[in-house]
Amino acid sequence: MSLPLTLVLVASPGIGDIILNVVRRRENLERVRKFFHWAARRSFWDLDIRESRVTDYIADVLTNFVRTENLYPFRNQRGERLETIAEMLLEANLITLSGGTLQREREIRKHIGDYVLFMAGIFPEYIKRRSLFDYYLEEGAKAYWSVSELDRALLRPGAMLFQELASRFELYVGALNYMRKAFFRDTLGDPYSFGSSVRKLIL
Questions:
Q1: Segments in the chain below pLDDT 70
Q2: For residue 81, with 0-12 CB atoms within 10 Å meaning exposed, 13-18 middle and 19 or more buried, which class applies?
Q3: What residues contact 114, with CB distance under 8 A and at least 6 apart?
Q4: Residue 199 to residue 5: CA distance in whole angstroms
Q5: Facing residues of 75 across strands?
Q6: Contact 92, 105 (CB under 8 A)
Q7: Could you tell me if 172 and 62 are in contact, meaning their C-beta atoms sit under 8 angstroms apart?
Q8: Residues of 167-185 as b/e, b for ≥16 C-beta within 10 angstroms?
Q9: Alpha-carbon gap, residue 137 to 185, rounded angstroms
Q10: SS3 content of the chain, % helix, strand, coil (to 5)
């Protein structure tokens, strides 16, 4: 039988602090998620974009990247973190060639699409300084298209969502950039401080 939370807090103050911190983080993340859903809907509506499933998905992508560790969640077979689009693409292609699971390939290609959407929409100047903007747009759209095909192969629902994201990728990047200007202006810093900047603004 599980003990009531209040009894755990009294009996084990150290554990209680950990539990309370976890609860607070979850509550804060939920507030961030609700804000992004509201801001995305407002911004996309201004631009006459009525795809609610896309709007909600993009809001969830932003929420995910509030945690900096989610920018680069994958490692190669040598344990090295994958930090560039080229490295992620290579790893996804190696999975295909080596007979790895389609699920693993899907996870990486979906992350590429999410990462490019986030970077090109929220921090375009960050990648334009490296003359990579067009390359990012191309690879982001291709990644989402691959996810839609993999979803069909895996009999997963949602293939149409990723097909929509792929076919109008540049439009959604532009809409995300509009949202940044409308709600954040120049207060977000860089991708690595995105989470802390967002928390300061809305929590």
A1: 1-26, 186-187, 203
A2: exposed
A3: 61, 64, 65
A4: 27
A5: 81
A6: yes
A7: no
A8: ebbeebbbbbbbbbeebbe
A9: 22
A10: 75, 0, 25
Q: Residue type at 197?
A: S
State the pLDDT at residue 139: 97
**pTM score above 0.70:** yes
Q: What is the DSSP string of 124-192?
A: HHHHHTTT-HHHHHHHHHHHHHHHHHHHHHTT-TTHHHHHHHHHTHHHHHHHHHHHHHHHTTT----GG
- The domain locations on the chain are 5-202
Residue appearing with tokens 């509201």:
38
pLDDT tens by residue, 25-55: 667 879 999 999 999 999 999 999 999 999 9
Provide the b/e sequence for 111-131 (b: ≥16 CB within 10 Å). Answer: bbbbbbbbbbbbbbeebeeee
Residue 98 corresponds to which amino acid?
S
Cα 116 to Cα 170: distance, rounded to the nearest angstrom = 11
